[in-house]
Amino acid sequence: MKRLILAAAALAVPLFVSASKADTVMFDPDGAGGAAAFNLASIDLDVGNALGVNATSGNALLPGQSVQFQQLFQAKLAHYKNDLNQNINAPAGAELTAIAGFNVVATKQTDGALAFSLASGPSFLQFFVGGADASDLGGTGFADGTRILDATVIAVAPGSRFTVNTVDAGAFDQFGTNNYSGISSVGGTGSFTLVASVNSVNTAFFLPFANPLTTISLVFAPSNTALPFVETDPSHLFTNYNPGTNTYNTVTPTIGSINGITGPDIQLQTDASAALITFTAPTPASAAAGFLLTGIFGATRLLRRRTIV
Fold first, then answer.
1. Is residue 235, in this structure, part of any structural domain at all?
2. How many domains does the chain have?
């Protein structure tokens, strides 16, 4: 399984890492069901999708100029890994899915790359467990079942960037049947690092911690996304979430005839994995759990990268 990391975040990454250690947490993959709990070390997500909403507005920027847009992400589980680095599948008929959304500021660099930082506005990172109904092509089934974790994105790390390497990477959808006839894509590479503060977990899945000052962080440790799509289908829909109203809505990508150029959106193939980190806060008030999501957007070659320890 090639790894990716998708989008965004953390000016505070050095702080989180220096105060943290690699660890595991007891996890029950079906909550009150019959599956046995185990020491969860990482969550390996399958190849998925990312969408930069109105992201192609950055194509015309001059060095030093910036544009703001929303980034959405969705993927389903490939497998869990326990503390012995063994793969553990989801219980039969079940799946874990992940969705995320946050705003970024993209600033044009002198080398042509776009460098990213977190922008203000609503953000979210969530995990769900439910029936095995998520469809990469349809873009449905990623936010149903039981929500087992809810988090807020809090930062995007320096070094998060994206560069278009070619304006013609061939057909947009090269995974099996071409479901997007007549649409081509740019190719590019990039990386993101995301930190999110955990608001709540379902303790039927994430079993209560023995130390109330120890919180959990997930490291989405990399590989890359790819353009064009060669390992999964591009999604027809994405899920967005409004934290203020606790409601969900769907977003239909608008990429035009050349993904990454005609826009206004750009859609990317992703492949993410999440390693667990715990860190001990000095007081309960400052015990903020987090997710660290890093990733690479790639054009032709998928690179594997070890999870952070």
1. yes
2. 1
Q: Is 306 contained in some domain? A: no
User: One digit per residue, pLDDT tens: the chain, 309 residues?
Assistant: 322 222 222 222 333 333 344 467 889 999 988 899 999 888 888 989 999 999 988 788 999 999 999 999 999 999 999 989 999 999 999 999 999 999 999 999 999 998 989 999 999 989 999 999 999 999 999 999 999 988 888 877 787 888 888 999 999 999 999 999 999 999 887 777 777 777 888 989 988 754 443 444 444 433 355 578 988 999 999 999 999 999 999 999 999 999 999 999 999 888 776 655 554 443 333 333 444 544 433 332 233 333 322
**Rounded alpha-carbon distances, angstroms, from residue 79 to 7, 96, 122, 139, 192:** 21, 9, 29, 20, 22
Residue 294 lies in a domain: yes
Quote the domain boundaries for residue 63. 13-298
Domain contains 141: yes
